[in-house]
Design brief:
Oligomer: homotetramer
Largest sheet of chain A: none
Helix content of chain A: over 70%
Number of strands of chain A: 0
Shape of chain A: elongated
Largest interface: A-D, 42 and 42 residues
Radius of gyration of chain A: 15 Å
Distance between the termini of chain A: 22 Å
């Protein structure tokens, strides 16, 4: 999310330091996008029947991440408990999807790329939960 | 979600009793849709500046509910911990959005309609969390 | 979308007759939801390799319908050309997904349910495009 | 969408040259994300009543772009007519949102950032429509 820093810099309700929010929103869009693409790469595999669980997990993780991305990138009048609950769900989805994709990372390079992005997103969600700069 | 019962009835991976899942998916789509419409009704109000917090909360609740609806309505190879985490976030978002809309329910009939739907969705998420028929 | 009529009835920017909009928004949520569920039912089928094209088409149709549902159900300051362009894309996605699911309707009852919903949504989008009550 | 090139490079169904698809998917996620953030920056402005049309347009453009991003980034068994119809809707939404944000670009720097991203996304959609490398 290249332009989000520039947009946050001119946002009327920006917190003193939006860097953790920016990193988390960027990671959520990146991970959500790669989970969509990884589910599709698994679907296009000659052995799709072996990848059903991975497809399902990637579809779920994509939905959680892309909803979280929208929520985290809003700076006006956030409800801290709502944002926290969604960040916890997102970190959990990323943890589970990373573990699933890592199972196939040896055979499927796209799962390796996706797993790496899931780990980064899990970490960005946890950093924001602990930094709590959105409150 | 009129047709979802008919679809689940013919799903190759349906659990013995998908009724709690069906009720939860239906409530999530309904609540997500009404939150989109309520945020828009607030935006079109002559006193929009007084409704900024309600708009933000409805937008977030819509995103959480519509992501949860997708996840809950998948019956193939679910990750129970992922589904649970998202249902907890959804129940929390609905609880917070219901409380916000109830603040305006006297003056804005659309907030009354939205709050009622949020309460029903919160309850459907909690019923599924406790019934755990998706596992 | 049971409550959307009640919500529109109290919307400050409602048009004289929102019935075509209400029908279209309801059909878009219903069809989007059933396409998510049908893609998952295909994914859980013992012959998933034969259903790859159907899964892909349902996933796309779900995304188009659920985006269209949000857009159509906003009544405040619409851009008629934007709404029309998205409704045309939605009618096309529904037409294509209905045709794909009808191919499997004999063997997969969930595809029959999904195809019926796609046809209804295509029709609701076209009715709104021609009625143009959102402008 | 940093990792999408690496993911496409290992996708079993990648076309000979996925570069236009990669550019379009990246632009759609970027523009969708910035439209979410711009609608929120407008909502948090002291003069929100003057920005209602801009908020509405950004919300619609975000929904169109984020749905398009998912669809474009799937490479397995695409329906060319479905993808084309959605890309045309996306180019149109971006054109309209760019024009709306440019109206406020002098007073609101976030609208300037958002408009630039909308123009880039419109162009990426049109390049893919004309290059047609997804077919």
């Amino acid at each position: 999310m290249e332009g989000i820093g520039a947009l946050f810099a001119t946002h009327p309700q920006r917190p003193p330091d939006p860097s953790l929010i920016e990193a988390c929103a960027t990671a959520c869009y990146e991970c959500g996008g790669l989970c969509v693409a990884c589910s599709d790469a698994c679907l296009g595999d000659g052995h799709v029947a072996d990848l059903v669980c991975c497809i399902r997990t990637c579809l779920d993780c994509a939905d959680v991440c892309l909803a979280s991305a929208r929520i985290v990138s809003r700076l006006t009048e956030p409800s801290p408990m709502l944002v926290e609950a969604q960040l916890m769900a997102c970190a959990e989805a990323c943890r589970i999807c990373a573990a699933e994709c890592e199972n196939h990372a040896g055979m499927h390079a796209h799962c390796r790329v996706c797993a790496k992005s899931c780990r980064a997103c899990e970490q960005a969600c946890r950093a924001l939960l602990h930094g709590a700069s959105f409150a």
